[in-house]
Amino acid sequence: MKITEKSLNINKVLNVYSGKFPVCSTSVNLRESDCFVYVLSDGAEYLFDGVSHIAKKGDIIYLARGSNYDIKVTANNYHYIVVNFTFDTPLILENTIFSSVFED
Predict the structure, then answer these.
(1) What is the pLDDT of residue 41?
(2) Selection from 88, 60, 63, 76 nearest residue 23 by Cα
(3) Which residues on adjacent β-strands are paired with residue 53?
């Protein structure tokens, strides 16, 4: 199921934080919560179901509860803001990147 206006009923925000990754690769298996990542600087590739998505400055990445994915950080200090939350729905949504055409 894709994210739609009707599926954006956030039940509870679990935490919000800013972080940086050094150049590395990591895998996530069975995310415990839904998540939005706001990309502050270029430098990461996300792989969902074997499909590569390049995270660019200004993009918002949705990572679904229960999903599996890989992250390959390609630039030092890949910087982001994370919001972990639960939707008010039992459905598992699909990981998605919302690309921004805005620089700021």
Answers:
(1) 92
(2) 76
(3) 46
Pairing of strands 96-98, 60-63: antiparallel
CB 70 within 8 A of CB 44: no
Residue 33 makes CB contacts below 8 A (sequence gap 6+) with 14, 65, 84, 85, 86
The pLDDT score that the predictor gives to residue 3 is 57
Query: CA 86, 87, 89, 91: dihedral to nearest 10 degrees?
Result: -80
φ and ψ of 37, to 5 deg: -115, 125
Per-residue model confidence (pLDDT) at position 28: 93
From 66, 21, 9, 73, select the one nearest 47 (Cα to Cα).
73
Regions of the chain short of the pLDDT cut 50: 1
How does DSSP assign 18-50, residue by residue? Answer: EEEE-SEEEEE-S-SSEEEEEESSS-EEEEETT
